[in-house]
Description:
Radius of gyration: 21 Å
Number of strands: 0
Number of domains: 2
Low-confidence stretches: none
Oligomer: single chain
Shape: globular
Number of helices: 11
Distance between the termini: 42 Å
Order of helices and strands: HHHHHHHHHHH
Amino acid sequence: MSASAITRFLNAPGHLPADFPFTPAASGKLYLKSLFCYLVGTLFPIGVFLAFCQYAITYDLPLADALFASDHFMLVMAVVSTITFLSGFGAQFLFVRRAILRQNSTVRDVLSLNVKNYQGSRNMLWGWGMLTFLVAAVLEQVVAALLPFKITDSTAEMINSMHGLSFALMALLAVFAPVLEEIIFRGFVYGSLRTALHRRLPDQSAADFTRQRLLFDLLAAFVSALIFGLAHMNLAGLPLYVVSGMVFAEAYRRSGSLYVPMIGHFINNGVLMLLMILMH
C-alpha cells in the first residue's frame, strides 16, 4: 500500500464530531474529582466487610474461621473486590453524569453512546466491534513479535492463580472492565484532546488543513493510548496497550459511537479470559 493510500485511509471522514464540552484540563480535573468519588464509593463495602470481620473475631463466631480459611479466602476477596468495584464505579458515574448535566447535555450525547450511524442496527455495531478487535489483535501480535523481550501481564497472572468461583468472578470483572476504560480513555481523554486540537485548526479547506487534521487526530489517539497504557502500570506491555488504544480511538472516530471500541475491547478481554479458562 502506497503512502498516499495510507493517508487517504487514515484521513477518511469519521462520524465523531469534535465538540467535546470539556477541555483537557477540565477533563483532568473532572477525572480526579470522579476518582475521589470512586475511592469514597469503595469505602462503604470495604468498611462493612472490615466491621463484620472485627465483629466475627471479637465474638468468636464460627463464620470467622470459614472466612479466613485458605480455601475460602480467595473467594471472599473476589466477592469483596467485585462489590467494591461496582460501588466505586457507581459513585464515579453519578458524579460525572451530574457534571455533564450541568453542561446542558447527557452522557449519551457527550460520549456518543448511539447506533444512529448504523440505522439502529446492533448487528452492524457488533460487526464493526469484531473488526476493531481483529485489527487490534493482529497489530498487537506483530508488535509483540518485534519486541526483544517477553511481555507478561501481572493482572492476568493473578487471576489465573485463582480457582473456582473466585476465578470466575475476577474473570467476569476483567471482561466488563472495558466499559469503564472506554468511557475514561476514549470518551473523555481522547474526546477532549481531539476537540482541543481541532480548535487550533484554521478555518479553511485547503490540503494543509486536511493534513493538520490528520496529524492532530493521530496525536490525540497516541496521547490517549499512551495514558491508557501507563494506567495499567505494566511498562513491559506498554507498546501493546498503545497499539490497541490507538486502534480503539480510530474505531471511535470512524464509527462515531463509543459502543464500537467498547465491543472490540470487550471481545479482546473476553477472548483472553476464555483462553485462560481453557488452560486453567
